């Protein structure tokens, strides 16, 4: 059986050549990142970098390495007008006179998993640029304006999951270094018995979130009248990938630990690209069960957002509490 390769899929897309170039560069860089991740200690990829990022978080060596890899590859591509990263304070214009696209990324999602050899990933969002010389204001587009979103998950298999607005496809990295289509038309089941949330924060959540999760925990004897299972990988990429494969809900709500912040996750690098993928796979991606993440107008680059996404009927149940 002849399998479709990502490069053939990209070539056949009904999309501008510039977007195809961007996707090709991102896919090649994710394949390179996969080698560094797999190398672990042998690739000098474990441990802290000794630097603090704009989010006030200690960067791991791999955060810095992967950020450099994506930034350098994208800024060198003539189709790119500029990039923004969870790991960089400011946007980086590309100085490409023909640059048409803005690429935003979390180069290494789930970095606390690196040193324990658990899954990590890369998340990428692509926007059209109104100018070849973009400033931060040009990046302030709602998620609905995305022309592509993808993640790579570096787990037992390395996979790249992509949408350009016409469904979601999954590609597995072969031993020869090719991305091969293995998951066509990914669809999230509307119902689920599985949820993902960091339960250790329970006492900090708002009352409705505590009520909703409390009802799930009561199982067959409770108001939901069914038993639920829980999973938490602590890398959004891996938790969302599980939901794309077998349904479920992923929640990272506002909590009282830092009441002035709307949540932990970032709108531009995590919320928007994941919401685009989830909606394209038939799921819902919201802040609170009701408000679609993709309709949120960004106000600043590193903005945070509460996230509730996954199986459509379960997100409705979350909204109903
Ligand atoms: P790191 O990249 O700093 O490890 O954060 C990962 C993340 O942004 C997201 O991928 C996880 O779902 C979430 O944070 C995990 O948060 P907790 O550490 O609070 O469980």
Describe this structure in words.
This protein is of the alpha+beta class. The protein folds into 2 domains: 6-183, Fructose-1,6-Bisphosphatase, subunit A, domain 1 (Fructose-1,6-Bisphosphatase, Chain A, domain 1, 2-Layer Sandwich), CATH 3.30.540.10; 194-320, D-Maltodextrin-Binding Protein, domain 2 (3-Layer(aba) Sandwich), CATH 3.40.190.80. It is 29% helix and 25% strand. The chain has 8 helices and 17 strands. The strands form 4 sheets. Strands 4-3-5-6-7-8-9-10 form an 8-stranded mixed sheet, with helices on both faces. A 5-stranded mixed sheet has the order 12-11-13-17-15, with helices on both faces. Strand 8 and strand 9 (169-173) form a beta hairpin. Helix 1 packs antiparallel against helix 2. The longest helix has 23 residues, at 17-39. The radius of gyration is 19 Å and the shape is globular. The model has no long low-confidence stretch (mean pLDDT 96). The structure holds 1,6-di-O-phosphono-alpha-D-fructofuranose. The site of 1,6-di-O-phosphono-alpha-D-fructofuranose has 12 residues, from helix 6. It is an enzyme of class 3 (hydrolase).
Catalogue the unreliable spans.
none
The proportion of strand residues reads 15-25%
Number of domains: 2
First and last CA, distance: 49 Å
The small molecules bound here are:
1,6-di-O-phosphono-alpha-D-fructofuranose
CATH superfamily of the largest domain: Fructose-1,6-Bisphosphatase, subunit A, domain 1
Helix content: 25-40%
Q: Could you state the order of secondary-structure elements as H and E?
A: HHEEHEEEEHEEEEEHEHEEHEEEH
Strands side by side in the biggest sheet: 4-3-5-6-7-8-9-10
Question: So how many helices?
Answer: 8
Major sheet details:
8 strands, mixed
| Overall pLDDT score | 96
> Could you tell me the radius of gyration in angstroms?
19 Å
In CATH, the architecture of the largest domain is: 2-Layer Sandwich
Derived from helix and strand composition plus strand pairing, the structural class reads: alpha+beta
Number of β-strand runs:
17
Tell me, what's the shape?
globular
- The name of the CATH topology of the largest domain is Fructose-1,6-Bisphosphatase, Chain A, domain 1
CATH class of the largest domain: Alpha Beta
Enzyme class: hydrolase
Subcellular location: Cytoplasm
Organism: Brevundimonas vesicularis
Main location: cytoplasm
């Amino acid at each position: 059986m002849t399998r479709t390769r990502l490069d053939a899929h990209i070539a056949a897309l009904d999309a501008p050549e510039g977007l195809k170039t961007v996707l090709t560069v991102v896919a090649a860089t994710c394949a390179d990142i996969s080698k560094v991740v797999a190398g672990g200690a042998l690739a000098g990829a474990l441990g802290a970098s000794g630097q603090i990022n704009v989010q006030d978080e200690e960067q791991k060596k791999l955060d810095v390495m992967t950020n450099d890899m994506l930034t350098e590859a994208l800024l060198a591509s003539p189709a790119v007008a500029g990039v923004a990263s969870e790991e960089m304070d400011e946007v980086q214009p590309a100085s490409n006179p023909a640059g048409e696209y803005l690429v935003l990324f979390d180069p290494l999602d789930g970095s606390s998993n690196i040193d324990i050899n658990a899954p990590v990933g890369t998340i990428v969002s692509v926007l059209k640029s109104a100018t070849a010389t973009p400033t931060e204001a040009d990046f302030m587009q709602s998620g609905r304006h995305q022309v592509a979103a993808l993640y790579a998950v570096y787990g037992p298999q390395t996979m790249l999951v992509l949408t350009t607005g016409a469904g979601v496809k999954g590609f597995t990295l072969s031993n020869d270094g090719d991305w091969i289509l293995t998951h066509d038309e990914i669809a999230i089941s509307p119902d689920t018995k599985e949820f993902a949330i960091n339960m250790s924060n329970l006492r900090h959540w708002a009352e409705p979130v505590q009520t909703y999760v409390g009802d799930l925990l009561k199982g067959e004897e409770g108001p939901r009248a069914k038993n639920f299972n829980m999973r938490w990988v602590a890398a959004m990429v891996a938790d969302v990938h599980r939901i794309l494969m077998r349904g479920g809900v992923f929640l990272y709500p506002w909590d009282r630990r830092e009441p002035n912040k709307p949540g932990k996750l970032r709108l531009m690098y995590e919320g928007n690209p994941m919401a685009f993928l989830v909606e394209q796979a038939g799921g819902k991606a919201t802040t609170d069960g009701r408000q679609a993440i993709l309709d949120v107008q960004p106000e600043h680059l590193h903005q945070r957002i509460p996230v509730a996404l996954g199986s459509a009927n379960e997100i409705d149940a979350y909204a109903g509490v």
